Amino acid sequence: MIRKLFHLKYRMLFPIVLVLVLIMGYPLVFSFWVSLHDYRLTAIENVQWIGLKQYAMLFKNASYWTAMRNTIVFVVMAVTLELILGFGLAVLLHRPTTLFRHFFRAILLTPMFITPIAVGLMFRYMLNSQLGIIPNLLRLIGIQIDWFGPQLALFSLALIDVWQWTPFMMLLLLAGLEALPSEPFEAARVDGASSWRIIWHITLPMMRPIIIASVIIRMLDAFRVYEYVYAITRGGPGESTETIQYHIYRVGFLYFRMGEASAMAYTLIVVILFLVVLLFYSLRWEREK
Amino acid sequence: MRRTIFVLTIVLVLVLAGCRPAVPTPTPPPPTKPPTVVETPTPTPAPKAVTLTVIMEQVPDYDIVAELTKKFEAEHPHIKIKFDAMPYDAMRDKILTSFLAPTATYDVIIVDNPWMDEFAKAGFLTPLDDYIAKTEGYDFEDFVGPIREIGVVDGKIYGVPYYNYALGLIVRQDLFDNPEYKAKYQQQYGKPLTIPTTLEDYVQIGKFFRAQGIYGAAMQPQRGYKVFEEWKNWLYAAGGNLLDEKGNVIIDNEAAQKALTLYIEMFRNAAPPNSLNWGFDEAMRSMAAGESATMISYNWMLPTLNKPGGPAGDLAGKFALYEVPGGKAVLGAWHWAIPKNTPHKDAAWTYISWLTSKPIDKQRVIMGGAPTRVSVMTDKEVWEKGYGQQYYETVLKILEDAEPLARGPRAEEIIIEVGTYLNSAVAGEMTVAEALKAAADKVREILARP
Asked: Which of B228, B223, B227 is nearest to B241 (CA)?
């Protein structure tokens, strides 16, 4: 048995397993250990075992649930808009008749290359009611919008995410479109189907696995939203833009309560793992269909 | 086979070493040898060369300290100073990391007032009583009382004052002196237009200016620190506080409700629209642009606004500083402190005591630094070369009747949590009573923690 385990093909895996254990296993195990203790950075010599108490306390923690709800609302808003816009752009840039399509493909990808904290700072000024170009332009046509007011702030953050990450969605969907066989489309055109009918009855059904994969990849990424919140609203007004990552930062790095912050981070891992499992199952289900 | 077992053993050892939960790093034992004493008057061998790393906030006061430090290095050739200046947000994490490291990254730190009790009680700071006692002519009592007290935790001194950011009422004096406005106000309210000393008057004046086409107050209701910092002045003016003398939480009592109701009334009727997320920089821009008549802000904003060629342009010179309505102000201050884990404590004290000594502190204030010593604020030379007698006398009055934003080892958390509920109330997401009840419950919960 041991000899079989140490077959060359398994031994070849040892270096990467070792690296994974060191760079991922250690922080994971350590943070889980921390989440089971009253671990405060200002009382590091008095760390005490409290078991699952920290997890139980999360159920009563209203700020935690608000942050979780805000994160889910943000993810749903941002990813839905990114999917719609990304798909539209992908279809446009896929058409051989679109002028300068290669040029536009390159230009449209640029927001992705900017670091999210810079995007956050940029929009903080662009949407600022005193200095921002966007409120000023809107004022010229008589529209006054408080982008960071309690009703709109989370949506504004989602729009910023849409600006930055729609190109990523477009890229994935465009790759999917390019990989589709051309015969069904040619047949449909010969039969006289309109462009809308082709998209609705042929493109969308054939793209379904790609769409599911793209949405889940973007969702996983959007769950990590932190920079826009940090740079623009700091979770306000009230707690209306407090996302789970920002909440974890607040508890861990502002209040130095690492045990509680770790417990929250673990619950987030559970949510994200659930999404990953969903991704694999949905893809397998699509393949088997 | 033997080779395989060997490889397996190595892997297992590495894996187990990697998985072992880290034992919290104990704070390093005090150095066995006494630290190098650098300021010995006896003809002992030449003092050992030391480089001190100093963490500071990247603000105009940093430039003044850096400039003065050149003089210190010339006077003390064996001590070199290396600054690590950074934005406020990055400082607390960096200082904490330095405390937890086996050897300090920073030999001299500045501590914001909400962090003082937290750091001192965690055992991160060096008590300075003996150093102060041994330093001839230092005159610790000369620092204004309320600022001096922030550095004292459980009867020991852990920080010496460096910089104050007590809040005052900054107004456009030309608007208050305008005969047309004076007459109109007199006619409308039956009393003269004067600098407000009560909350009711302040709100009324705010609404009056709003009706004249100028916003009554540039406010800073941003969630967390900012709203708490501004509103707490209103709370004092209404006769309230966070805790009573016995330590009971009273932030939901009648005085607090009055303070928050009036604060919201002012925000809705006199402040610039869409300013719910404003902090002090946005409020300052609003004053500098001439769109607002008053603001409650840091006293050092006045020289900034009145500076010729500064942000206020032609309005420079038209701003004046007064005590906040009610008289009692929120006090913020930075203190110099020495981490317990630095091996260069003596050299660090040599630097701190030089920089905060009477003559150097006077120079610093003349160069534009925020004052903390009574003797400096009452010095005629400072009045002449600095921002004028009236400014320093007002600052001294503000400082003498001021109370820190919050105290205790949980001050940071209390400020952020209460500031979140206050912002919710201003945003209209919670009623005044709901927000204050939630804030009080939260503070009780925080204070009950071990």
From this structure: B228
H-helix or E-strand containing A140?
Answer: helix A133-140
pLDDT-derived band of residue B18, with 50, 70 and 90 as boundaries? very low
Contact criterion met (CB < 8 Å) for B450 and A22: no
Instruction: Provide the residue type at A208 as one letter.
Output: R
- Residue B33 vs residues A244, B29, B36, B130, B131: alpha-carbon distances, Å: 48, 11, 9, 19, 18
CA angle B90, B93, B94 (to 5 degrees): 80
Interchain CB contact of A26 with B (< 8 Å): yes
Q: What string of DSSP letters covers B10-67?
A: HHHHHHHHHHSPPPPPPPPPPPSSPPPP----S-PSPPPPEEEEEEEE-SHHHHHHHH
Whether B18 sits inside 8 A of A22 (CB atoms) is yes
Q: What is the dihedral of CA A215, A218, A222, A224, to 10 degrees?
A: 130
> How far apart (Å, rounded) are the C-alpha atoms in residues A252 and A231?
18
Give the up-direction half-sphere exposure of residue B159: CA atoms within 13 A in the CB hemisphere: 32
Which of these, B117, B113, B334, lies nearest to B228 by C-alpha position? B113
Q: Are B59 and B370 in contact (CB under 8 A)?
A: no
For B119-133, letters b (16+ CB in 10 Å) and e give: bbbbebbbbbeebee
* CA atoms of B271 and A225, how far apart (whole Å): 32
Nearest to A115 by CA among A245, A240, A214, A226: A226
End-to-end CA distance of chain B: 55
Q: How far is CA B284 from the centre of its chain?
A: 17
B303 C-beta neighbours (distance < 10 Å), count: 18
* pLDDT above 50: residue A135: yes
Give which of A59, A87, A77 is closest to A264, Cα–Cα.
Answer: A59
A28 touches chain B (CB under 8 A): no
- The residue type found at A33 is W
Question: Per the CB < 8 Å rule, is B96 touching A41?
Answer: yes
3-state secondary structure B177-192: HCHHHHHHHHHHHCCC
Q: Residue B144, Cα to own-chain centre: how many angstroms? A: 15
Given an 8 Å threshold on Cβ–Cβ distance, is A26 in contact with B18?
Answer: yes
Q: Name the residue type at position A48.
A: Q
The pLDDT > 70 percentage for chain B reads 90
Residues 6+ apart with CB under 8 A from B224: A234, A235, A236, B415, B416, B419, B420, B423
- Render B87-128 in DSSP notation, one character per residue: -HHHHHHHHHHHHHSSS-S-SBEEEEGGGHHHHHHTT-B---
Tell me the residue length of chain A. Answer: 289
Which candidate from B222, B272, B275 shows the least CB-CB separation from A236? B222
Looking at per-residue pLDDT, the higher value among B58 and A70 belongs to A70
Cβ burial, residue A191 (10 Å; 0-12/13-18/19+): exposed
Contact B364, B65 (CB under 8 A): yes
Please give the Cα distance from B353 to A107 (Å, whole number).
58
ipTM: 0.84
| C-alpha of B164 from chain center | 6
- Cα B207 from chain centroid (whole Å): 30
Phi-psi label, residue B330: left if phi above 0, alpha if psi -120 to 50, beta otherwise: beta
A19 touches chain B (CB under 8 A): no
Q: Give the per-residue pLDDT at A287.
A: 72
User: A194: buried, middle or exposed (CB in 10 Å: 19+, 13-18, 0-12)?
Assistant: exposed
CA distance B273 to chain A (A): 8
